[in-house]
Design a protein that fits this description.
Length: about 270
């Protein structure tokens, strides 16, 4: 019986089962920790118990530092889409709708999604690695020993910065995207700027902009919360820091994709 048990534990079937079980436990553990940290952060925000100096520092980090890469990604993706859309629509005699379609795409999806991806890659990974390093070097344990709450000192300023700054980043990215779309449409489809912006004016509604800003708020808070939580859960030295950073990036991508789906169902389905 012992020999059979040893043999079974070496089989591919058992290894696959063990891997899936481990992944499932890790998934629910991470989800539970994210939920737990959300309520802890929310309690501090309700009491407005925040460190303003740290919040300002994190706001600068979240918005200013990430702006160049964010605008580059949004601008290039808009140019690619606009060049393809404008050329074909002008050929079909639908040039008057180019600005409207490109702008709706930018405002509803492209600007906020691409901004989210840029923020995750640059800021989210940085937040996760920072807290993970503090965890594995026992700095967080030292904070607890000094009666300093890590949630208040580490989580609240970063989550609040994400909530406040993400809409600011998305507004600028959307503006740059619309302007890049106008230039690309003029080059690819020989569409006049007057026709482009006239179409934008007629096709863009307050609802589109409101939903975009609401998405940005949820995206910013989600990215910061997930990144901080994954970093906070790190263990195992330098390898643990790498695992925590990777987990933060993956979970953040999934998180904003899920929020985007829910917003699409709620407002545009």
């Amino acid at each position: 019986m012992g020999d059979f048990s040893t043999f079974f534990h070496k089989t591919a079937t058992f290894q696959l089962y063990h891997l899936l079980l481990k992944q499932a436990v890790d998934f629910f553990t991470t989800l539970g920790e994210i939920t737990k940290k959300f309520f802890a952060v929310f309690a501090y925000l309700l009491k407005f118990d925040i460190n303003r100096k740290i919040v300002i520092e994190q706001c600068e980090r979240f918005a200013i530092s990430s702006m160049p890469i964010t605008l580059s990604i949004v601008g290039m993706s808009t140019i690619i889409v606009a060049m393809q859309v404008a050329g074909e629509m002008v050929k079909q005699g639908a040039g008057n709708f180019v600005g409207m379609l490109v702008t709706i795409l930018i405002v509803r999806e492209d600007a906020v999604i691409m901004s989210g991806f840029a923020i995750i890659s640059m800021i989210g990974s940085s937040l996760a690695s920072e807290l993970a390093t503090m965890r594995v070097t026992e700095q967080i344990d030292a904070m607890k020993a000094l009666k300093v709450d890590p949630i208040k000192y580490l989580f609240v300023p970063r989550v609040l910065a994400g909530i406040l700054m993400m809409p600011f980043v998305v507004i600028i990215a959307s503006t740059i995207g619309v302007l890049c779309g106008a230039v690309a449409s003029n080059i690819a489809g020989d569409l006049s700027y007057r026709a482009y912006f006239s179409s934008v004016w007629n096709g863009l509604y307050i609802k589109d902009m409101s939903v975009c800003l609401a998405k940005a708020i949820f995206f910013g808070g989600t990215i910061s919360l997930i990144s901080c939580t994954c970093g906070y859960m790190a263990k195992g030295g330098a390898k643990g820091v790498g695992i925590a950073t990777t987990k933060a990036v993956v979970w953040s991508f999934v998180g904003i994709a899920l929020w985007d789906l829910l917003f699409a169902i709620a407002f545009f389905f």
